[in-house]
Amino acid sequence: MADQVKQLVAHQVAAYKASLELQQGGRTGGKYGSESKLHRQLRIISGSAAGKRLLSSQGAQTRPMMEKVRAAIFNMILSRAGSGAQLPPDARWLDLFAGTGSVGLEALSRGAGVTHFVEMDHWVVRKVLGSNITTCGFNKRSVVHTAKAEEFMKKAKALPRYAGGAFDFISMCPPYLLVSYPELFGLLEGSPLIHDRTILFVEY
């Protein structure tokens, strides 16, 4: 399963790079360019919101995780968590670099109690992420932080109970070419966002 995930992620990285190159080469002005063109090609795979279609943009900025990658990741997590087909009902999930919210919403659909979404782009939060949360009916179980993931993690280190404390699951799916992974890992090391049994996955 781990090898399958690596192959799928490698495919997604290549697709993301190609999309980013096309977007940079084809910009005609404006802050968001093709980001304003939305479609509903993404969907929730399993759980209470299975089949719900999610908004995403045609640009590369929201970087939605491919469904095959998402399915493989959740199969691994559910197997390791030992909770059968559902996440524990009191599980807390942190979706860093949330974008469309597809990962955190998948977690909620599969039984997580609450998901905190961290996304820095106000337009994405307003037009994409917020809409997807509403579409899935998860407003009461979702908390959105409009902030850079790095700043969110720095604030958590300064305020240990920030965002309610540690999370049981953390997903981090950054824009591969635009972040410093050593910085991100350094912020996670010893972070109060993590406890001894936290399951963390990073798309690298």
TrEMBL record:
Pfam family, one: Cons_hypoth95
Keywords for the protein's UniProt record, in alphabetical order: Methyltransferase, Transferase
Keyword Ribosomal protein attached: no
InterPro entries for the chain: RNA_MeTrfase_RsmD, SAM-dependent_MTases_sf
GO MF annotations, alphabetized: methyltransferase activity
Lineage: superkingdom: Eukaryota
One GO term of the biological process aspect: rRNA methylation
Annotated protein name in UniProt: 16S rRNA (Guanine(966)-N(2))-methyltransferase RsmD
Organism, as annotated: Haematococcus lacustris (Green alga)
Taxonomic lineage from the root: Eukaryota, Viridiplantae, Chlorophyta, core chlorophytes, Chlorophyceae
